[in-house]
ATP-dependent RNA helicase SUPV3L1, mitochondrial (Merluccius polli), 753 residues
Amino acid sequence: MSVNRCMHVLRLQRRMSVLTLRSPGALPDSRVCYGGTTGSPISLGFSRDVSSNSSPPTTPDTSLFVPLAFKSDCSVDGSVGAELTQPLDKSELLKILNRFYKKKEMQKLAADQGLDARLFHQAFISFRKYVLEMTSLGAALHIILNDICCGAGHIDDIFPYFMLHAKQIFPMLDCMDDLRKISDLRVPANWYPEARAIQRKVIFHAGPTNSGKTYQAIQRYLTAKTGVYCGPLKLLAHEIFEKTNDMGVMCDLVTGEDRTFMDPEGRAAGHVACTIEMCSVSTPYEVAVIDEIQMIRDTSRGWAWTRALLGLCAEEIHVCGEPAAIDFVRELMYTTGEEMEVHTYQRLTPFSILDNALESLDNLRPGDCIVCFSKNDIYSISRQIEIRGLECAVIYGSLPPGTKLSQAKKFNDPDDPCKILVATDAIGMGLNLSIKRIIFSTLVKPNINEKGEKQMDTISTSQALQISGRAGRFSSKFKEGEVTTMHRDDLPILKGILSLTVEPIQTAGLHPTAEQIEMFAYHLPDATLSNLIDIFVSLSRVDGLYFVCNIDDFKFLADMIQHIPLNLRSRYVFCTAPINKKQPFVCTSFLKFARQFSRDEPLTFDWVCRHISWPLPPPKNIKDLVHLEAAHDVLDLYLWLSYRFMDMFPDTALVRVIQQQLDDIIQQGVRNITRLIRATDPAGADPLGRGAAASPRVPRLGGMPLERRGNSLASRLVKDGLLTPDLLRQLQSEWFKEVVPQGQEVARKNKKK
Ligand SMILES: Nc1ncnc2c1ncn2[C@@H]1O[C@H](COP(=O)(O)OP(=O)(O)OP(=O)(O)O)[C@@H](O)[C@H]1O
Ligand SMILES: [Mg+2]
């Protein structure tokens, strides 16, 4: 490594540890703490060495090494080579080069220098092209080649020139050791020197759902002078924020898009409730609560729990979660040299799995919550419920928080006629709702696997327990929880799932930081951010207790804005924005924001209003509602960015006002969601017109999905006046009852597939 590079890397490393100290908690923060002249992570001398189960140095995935265009500098030599010898015979050269390529010894020598077969081949093609197409080669190479042509030189003499060429087009070959060092993630406990400087007391509150784990931790948090609550959902952070203030303890709320300070002058209160990604690892607290610790194994978000657990600067860390995480957290605490106390709890209310499936929506009772895993199922089921003259509340992930809260309040309110809830597993963690019975409409859920691919999986025991745990909450009027399925043949499967013990947690997530990526970029200045990340992950070494989180969403955004000129730090921050990539409007807005930002033009309130066409009218149908939800997400994105680039997103307060108004408009729409569904699709089964996206459990009629009836005979009959919508609804209800067994058959076949 050149002196300049060394200096730069050292500067970056120094800056990185400074940033660690000042980390605002907004990013997966900086961490590796290098020391001395060797650049190896500082050992803080704790008793247990966990590197024994570390992964060996990884063989990089060389398919990620994108060759650069070769830049020749032989103009310095001009045609000296040819003048000293003679012009080269190209056909002779071609033969010599091909012999060089086929020589096993050359391939072996190249492999020793990091060129595997793939890279050797690519480097050779590039080298051959250079030698054959350049009008003048460097003098030394020209002379060597001429000697070989004349029989006076050896073919092996080409190797140093070939290697020089290879390292120019694959610059990573020259700095592999540095890249390996930067991507060495083996001792994450050392990334948080401030937390390591204090002796923290760790208390694990373990137990099943609804056993009072969070309650007990919060009791201690309330009595502390300062405290932070870190939760998995905005809604949970909000619940704790409200409860804490209701108890007379001043508490702020911090989520990616929101900072609510109780002090009118904006001074931070002693207590804060936040989403876990946002917790500060540089602020000292007396008590920290980390809720739902089992999420540490989550393939996308696990890094945030790891960071909180290792990095929070609190005298007492209260960890709440499934018993399956106890041994693992204790193991992690060995690496920090901290002891852990375990408090175990039992369920506060009884809970039973029923012997009968619901079978028909006619059997719904007050306090029922139907759980689906797709929005389409939410729409179709709520419509079916309305057909039966019942009112229902709906909660799904993409609703704004205000709407979710108002729907939860409506359902919880004993005086409201709405007694049924239809929800996705957005309600599945820690929330307190007045549910008596959970009904799984399906047990199959789309998941993203470790490779980032979408697949349909039967829900895990942990997921099933979390969701079922919403029934019969201690604080609700239902003092006993029940769980069942919609379909008869799902019930034994659910019983099987719930009878299993949750697999003990084995690994925790990690995430590369902006600083690490910045150091990578210094070494590989021509690589794209997405490619840098790929190479980082491929080279990274983790201790056996950790894994690198899936970063496909990050890469998706990085690829989307690659062509926009941004400095690396800003590009990195943009790509960590939590965006639903399935929403085209949000994605195009992201692109527009980045473009405007790159032109150094502040994104003003007027600009944003024009962009989302504010003011927006109330929704007339589901498509309008989906658009409003996306517009809300765009404003969320604005607010999220405004906390990271205040000067470029200056109108936070104004945007927050219209976002609140938009939340109100959406609330109104959702209050009448069945009217919107009806307006979209009178047959009422697939308002988004995405039959294929509906869960496999949606009943089908004679192989034809009910939800596709928008263009069907039924809708034509209605259009031609041969069938009234009311008659159709009646028929639909009858079909529904008839096709449940048929639907089950289809689902069974689907599952087998
Ligand atoms: N000792 C108690 N006194 C009064 N209310 C309690 C007590 N313990 C728990 N609760 C209430 O019971 C409900 C369930 O408790 P809590 O949310 O702490 O359970 P949990 O074990 O964290 O559940 P989950 O695993 O679903 O997060 C909450 O509304 C909580 O306020
Ligand atoms: Mg809890």
